Amino acid sequence: MRLGRRDPSQEFDPTQPLVATGNLRRRHFVSRAFQCLAVAAAVGAVAVLVIVVTAVVSHGASAINWDFITKGAPEGVGPDLVGTAIIVGIATLIAMPVGVLIALFLTEYAGRRSTRPVQLLLDVMNGMPSIIIAVFAYILIVEATKKESGLAGAFALSIIMVPLIARGTQEVLNLVPRPQREAADALGVARWRSVLTIILPAARAGIVTSTLLSVARAAGETAPLLLLSSLFKDETFQFNPLEPLPNVPVRIFQLSEEANPEGFTKAWGLSLILIVIILALGLGSRALLNRSKRKMS
Amino acid sequence: MSATPPAGSASLKLARSNRQSDSRKRADRVGDLSLRLICTAAAVLAAIVLILIAKEVIEGAQPAFAKYGLSFITHEEWAPPLEVFGGKGLILGTLITSAMALAIGAPVAISIAIFLALLAPDGVRNVVSPLVEMLAAVPSVILGFWGLLILGPFLAGTVEPFLHEWLGFIPLFGTPQTTGASIFNAGLILTIMVIPIIASVSRDLFMAVPSDLQDGAAALGSTRWEVIRGVVLPTTLSGMLAACLLGLGRALGEAIAVSQVVGGGTESHISLFRNGGTMASLIALQFPSAISALHYASLYYLAALLLVIGVAANLAASYVGHRFGGAPAR
């Protein structure tokens, strides 16, 4: 901390008005300049978000109408929406139990020695590039069965979702008030009963929140589906997860690779639908979490 | 734990409750054990999946590794029809784009975090914080699509010629191409992707700095910036480093958005304005249409390299975060 250096030539004058001079003035200036930079950075980030979302909305809005959402190719993208719903749904069914159980393991059962490695494991899984998970699922499933499938895509997405759900659930489980657990213990309730009937219900909103957030993340993941579910039949609705399912992210990717203005419009429309779903999931889960946190504390 | 009536009670009623509680105790023992086992199994399953990922990817890379060894890293030519594969250009592309993302993104993100944690009034923070996190929620394929159609032409038409004219003597700022697909574009898209990650982790760090320390510095006459510079930043240095490593991990591994805007080249060059490729983006572009076993193996080789670098970045982040105090990296 540099404090203002005293100038020996300047005598103390009690009648001088109390305004910053010399060094202090410079320090105030520096301080204000850096604060302005920080504000500018925040404004910049929000501006980028606004620019991207505006571009998607302004280009995509014209593409969207009832036929676009409900019909198959060439005029609509219904099959893509259905396919994404199926794939993400299956992925959630796989990932949610596993994620919640891992969180339970961390908060209820793990000793001092096993907590760190499992946390680290989740960190590494969370930071694992999705393209590598895609390559892994390709080797494991597609090379073995010689066929792409929606199920393989769902498997890869679930690997991406598990650490997110586990992390979020763990946070809310830690928020469950200590007295509630102790009261159950004091009444002689067995640990598994108190977990199933007291702790998990108390954390329900948090579990739903983290699951919704992971669904939002998975719905936009492109790399796994590009490798695992991209050779789909184009025109019609597909419901069989053992076949490659058409899906939104891969369709956007494919349309963006073709230099075709009509395709671009379609891709903008799809982007708009996807971004609206994702932002709605994000905002909804945030509201839910805030409400439940207020209730708990 | 459970309340057991005194053993050997003569009363019929007590005996019945005793029997009941015996069966209940047995159920509890089974229930406790099975829930513990199921939870442990889930954790073990995650570990197995992680190990399997490493094993399968590295095994898949074996043919390419046997053929090229480590010279894969220094060899430049990538020509699938000729069965010649070398990763130098892609590794260089990955490093340049990620370095650019961090060089621009880290200072901006940390400034945002300073604003959110220390400067903004509550009302502003509660609005801006979720917005910054929403930036992280925008799917990479949409960001890439935007980068391709809107950012790319803007860069190629305005920014790149300007930079080339003024800074063209630096080899980084070479002659711009007309398409807008360039390393520069990819770096900017990655910047947008790493900012929310670094910003939200650093914001949590800054919020955790004890206010006693800050108040003390302020009481000694420090200005706002001097408090930040002298107290907040030094105490959270390791955490910020961890946050940057997390951002680096994300930038290195991003495949889709980069493959949309980078142009799909494979040569090694350091001009930001030419098209190029990164390891992850090339896997995404060529994997669906790989033409030979060696082509697949070489892509697996890239994936294995990426895996090693990515895991190393995450472990380093976790190590730095825990080892040198501060809030643990998320």
Question: What does it look like?
Answer:
The complex is a heterodimer of chains A (297) and B (330). Chain A is mainly alpha-helical and 297 residues long. The radius of gyration of chain A is 27 Å and the shape is flat. The two termini of chain A are 39 Å apart. Chain A contains twelve helices and no strands. Chain A has one domain: MetI-like (MetI-like fold). Helix content of chain A is 75%, strand content 0%. Chain B is mainly alpha-helical. Chain B has two domains: 1-67; 69-323, MetI-like fold (Orthogonal Bundle), CATH 1.10.3720.10. At the A-B interface, helix 1, helix 3, helix 4, helix 5 and helix 6 of A face helix 1, helix 3, helix 4, helix 5 and helix 6 of B.
Label this structure with key terms.
heterodimer, A: 297 residues, mainly alpha, MetI-like fold, 12 helices, flat, B: 330 residues, 2 domains, disordered C terminus
Largest sheet of chain B: none
Low-confidence stretches of chain B: 326-330
Terminal residue distance of chain B: 36 Å
CATH superfamily label of the largest domain in chain B: MetI-like
- What is the count of DSSP helices of chain A, taking H or I runs of 4+ residues? 12
Q: What overall form of chain A do the CA principal axes indicate? A: flat
Write the layout of secondary structure elements.
The complex is a heterodimer of chains A (297) and B (330).
Chain A lengths: L21 H39 L5 H5 L7 H32 L2 H16 L2 H16 L4 H26 L2 H9 L4 H12 L1 H17 L2 H6 L19 H10 L3 H36 L1
Helix pairs in contact in A: 1-12, 3-6, 3-9, 4-6, 5-6, 6-9, 7-8, 9-12, 11-12
Chain B lengths: L11 H57 L2 H4 L13 H32 L2 H16 L2 H28 L15 H25 L3 H9 L4 H12 L1 H17 L2 H6 L17 H8 L6 H31 L7
Helix pairs in contact in B: 1-12, 3-6, 3-9, 4-6, 5-6, 6-9, 7-8, 9-12, 11-12
